[in-house]
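To illustrate this point, we now present one chain and its tokenised fold:
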Amino acid sequence: MAAYPIVVDLVGRACLVVGGGAVAERKVDGLLAADASVTVVSPTLTSALAAFVRDSRIRHARRRYRRGDLAGVTLAFVATGDRHVAAAVAREGRRCGVWVNAADDPAHCDFFLPSVLRRGPLLVAVATGGAILVIVVSPWPLEISTMVMGLFPVTSAETVMLPPTR
């Protein structure tokens, strides 16, 4: 896969998450951390997602995905485990220019989400093009994000902010 790594500013941008389970919850958590404007389309929600709705942190359409849901959306995420739904969202996304990520379904992804570590302003991302990357450390596997976290431990050291270069 030929990929181009980018970091996307989603502040205030409309993002759609199709699905209301644990995987959708993780997508919503990341989108909220990026200050995106999130709508979840799902007949049911986890208790954490329901709390986000009650606190007005996300919007919720209590139904299944339907064509037209991507209108005005910047990015869409499918987290239903249903390849038919992923295919339908991907088709609509490609028709209207919305990038789609379908969890565990690389054929219906326009982009992949890397493993991410944040330490203040530092963001470290590791991507595998949709494959799960595990480093085997005898006898236990170690996820790459855990390994990277070891490289950047939390310390009491002062963070120095440098102006961005352009």
Remarks:
- The two ends are 28 Å apart (CA to CA).
- Residues 8 and 71 are 19 Å apart (CA to CA).
- Residues 114-166 form one domain.
